[in-house]
Structures are given as C-alpha cells and as structure tokens.
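fold-stage: in
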Amino acid sequence: MSLLRNLNSPPLVALAGGALAVGFPALQGALSAGASLALLKSLNLAAFAANCVAVSIPGRLDGPQDDEMRKGSLNPTKPNADSAGEGKDDGYSLNRSRTLVNPSGWAFAIWGPIYLGEAAFVAAQFVASDATASALLPSLTAPFVAANIFQSLWCASFRPSYGEGWRKYVSAAMLGATAASLSVVHSAGAAAVATDPSTLGYLLLPMTMHFGWTTAATLVNLNGSLAADESASPRSLIAMGNSSALAATALGVGLTIARSDPAYGLTLAWALAACADGMSKRIPSQNATEEETLKKATAVQGKLCWAGSIGCAVAAAYAALL
C-alpha cells in the first residue's frame, strides 16, 4: 500500500493517462487485428480486476460517503451528510456546497448493477461460443481495457493530494477519458449486435449504463473541481452548472436517438433527476454573500436538470419504439 501511495503522484498519473490516450489507437489496432481470444479475455479480466482493486483503496475524497453507501447508512435526503444528518466538515463537502451539480446520494446505487453486470460480462466471455466472442471481443477489448485503466487513474487522482492548481482537474480528465472509452465500447457493441442479432447484446447493458453514468459523473467532477477553487466566482459556478445540465441533456437525447439505445438515455435521465433532487437539499455555502447568489441559481438549475431528465426519458422511449 505504501508503494502505491509513493507512485501516486499527480504528474505521474497525468502522464500515464496522457500516454494511454495517445497510445489508444495503436492498442485498438493491435487487439482488433488477429489477437487471440484467450489474450482478449485475459486482458478484459485483468483490467476489470485492477479497477475493482483501485475502487476499494480508501482515501478518496468521496470516501466517507462511499463507506456509508456500502453500509446502507447514507441519508439519501442529504447527499453530503453522515448517518446522523450532520454535514461533514471536509473538503469534499465544502466543494459540494458551492457546486450546482451535486446528485443526491441515492443516485450512486447505480454502481451496484454496473459492477455486477460487468463482472457477469467478464465471466460470460469465458463460456460464450467462439462465434459470439469473435463477434464482440476484437472491437470491444481495447476500449474496455482503457476504460478500466482510466477509471483506476480516476480513483488515484480523486484524493486530497490533488487539491491544488491543475491537479484538481486530473480526476475530471480521467473520468472523461473513461466515458470516451466506454463510448467506443458502446458504438462497437451496437455495430456487432446490428451485424449479428444473435450476439449476446444484453451483456453490453451494464457497459451502456457505465457509459451514461460516467458521462454525467464527469460533469459532476468538473463542477466540483471548479468549486474547490476559492477564487472561482459565483457567476462562474452558475455558468458551469447551467452549461453542464444542458450538455448532459444534449448528449443524453442526441446519443440515445443516434444510436437507438434507450439504456443510455435512461441512465442520463436517472443522473439528471438525482442532480435536480440534490438541488432541493443542497448544503448552503459558508460564505453568506456567495450563498445569496447561489441560492437564487439553485431553482433555475433544478428546473434545467428536471427538464433534461424528462427529455432523456422521452428520447429513450422514442428509441425503444423505433
């Protein structure tokens, strides 16, 4: 554990993420051009296992909230509160009091189905027929492996030691890269299923949910990183919050219809509904002058998130009927 802490330096983590992003096309080309099924399956297993280990290492900024969620003691009406309903006096909670993109605690229950579903995918690839594996794995393995590595790097960077300057934005970049990688998984999986309807498309559902959730989570993370900057003005926080709600809505509606996948739209609808609900229970900023401005913006932000949630749900219904 001490070795991992020593290796976890912001420049090193940022460099690792950048190297993976630059090298991704080469990785995808190598794995899709004749790599054995045994190698592809082993890489998927190793990457997913590494992600599970990274998620379990304590010390992340959301650690107290994550611990309470795992124990079932998280108060869903106060996303930054402990089981007794008291606000936690830590950097994570203080950042959440300034941001306008702060989902209620119940939203994070989606991680359970995502990880269980992806574990089922990793297990199923070992018992699937060669025809099914050959249809899915060559195009899915590189982005799936990349997504798990990027999320592991997010776990490394979403920590107090990344709280200053450019370091604050490393975690948002890693989460964004996770979503981008899962977008490639989603696109490749949809193409494989369209080519061969007998392909086990239901195995891709948890990765679609993961893609949708990390899309929203990237925006949550980005807003939190900005809120951590004490010099950030209320105007900038409001602009970031409003634009994030609109961006999530545009992505949710656009990709759901373009790729005819209701699951992505429903996941964004879930996330936006949680953000809207979070606005009704937001912890006030400790700065009275700032709070006066942010409180007025809260109502607008809540309406934007609710409208976006409904829009994504309608798009999902439309895609389901196509």
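fold-stage: in (second)
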Amino acid sequence: MQHIDRDQLYTDSVYRAKYVASFINWSEEDQKLVHASAQYLGPMVPAVVDAVYQKLFSFDITKQTFANRMDGFKGESITDAEQLSLKSEQIAFRKDMLSKYLVKLVTSDITSPGFIKYLDWVALIHTDNANKKTSINVEYVHIGALMGFVESVLIGAISDLPLDPETKKKTLLAFNKLLWLQNDFFAQYYCFDGSELPGARSNVKGVRHAAADQAAASRVAALTNQSGAIIGASAGALAIGAVAGFLLKMYK
C-alpha cells in the first residue's frame, strides 16, 4: 500500500498532481495517445475556441466576467458587457490564450513539473488572489460547467477521427483523465479542504475566498468552543445547586 501525505497534497502542487495521475491510472500510453491526436486536433483549435466563447457569451453571468481587465492585456478594456462582442480586442486576447492552452494540452509532457506548474497557473488566474492586479474571480460553478462543455466538444471531435475503434476508445479515455487532472487544479483553489494549513497553496497564493473560508472556520470553531464552555458552566452550576438543595433538606 502506498502512503500519501495529506498535508503535502495541499502544499505541493507537483506531489498532488502525481497522486491524482496515479489514482486515475494516467500512463505513458495515455501521453502518447494525446500527442498522437495533435495532428488531427491541432487544426481544430480555432473552431473549438470559437465554440467555447459562443457558449460563454450565451449567458449573461459568464459574459459579464469578460467585461473586466485581464492581467497581461495592454489594450483598452470594454467594461460594459452590453458593448462587448466576440470581435472585441480583449476577447481576441483571451481567445489567443485559450488557443495556446489547448495546443499545450496535446503537445506537453503532462506530468512534468514544468507543465504541472502551468496547469496550476491556469487554475490560479481564475481566482481573486493577492498576486493579481485585477480582482476577477470566476466562481467554480462556471468553471465546472465549462470543463464539461469542453470535454463534450473534444469527445465529439475525437469520435470523428480516422482511428480504429480501440485506439479511439483509448484516446477518449486519455483525454477524460487529462481534463480531470486539470479540474483538480481548480479544486485545489476553490475547495475548503486543506485551508486550515498555513502552507496550503490557496493560502500561500492569497486566494481571497479561501482566506475568508479559513477565517469563517476559525470563527465557527471559536463559537463552538465558547458555546461548549457556557453549556459546561451552566450544567456545573445546576449540579451544584441541586447538591446544595439536597444538603439543606437533609440537615434542616
């Protein structure tokens, strides 16, 4: 049985990624299948990116996110979502970022420390954290929904590739594992688990909602302890009163 250090899962992104990869049986064959698909999926990246942004612009709550300045964007930002279009300069900038991300997914060594740090950065930039000049925070419900949409697009694309049935099946499974690996990096910054550790990645990076969760948990613990002390003191007082009453009756 392999031992896994719980604290290190929340303080070391490389350790965490390798644990998740091992758990879902990510293999060298999976890596080769993803790389082999690049020759087919690479030319599809612009269409995938367009589909993603059309979906994001079909809901006001997700479109509103883009009416904010993004770190690294040097142009003029449109801050009114109603004036924002898929042809706006800031959307072109974001589309380019997504295109590069998708290309990296199918060409990189997934479990290499360098690429793990890249996946970690992709998750972190979607949060409101101390290292960002902007305060954009994409809530996890939208992250999860988008990951599901991207996976469905990829499944559709891979299903149409000129591959034999067994290779196609294995390629689909490999991409499923890959997207779950990416999703766990988001979970690292959005979930409460591990936030009690000062060295947790969410705390070290100053993710503000994680810090708020940690503070809230501390307040709940303090109130629980306080309530316990009050209840204990009250129970003690009642017991003393009962004993005193009994003794008074006995010696009256």
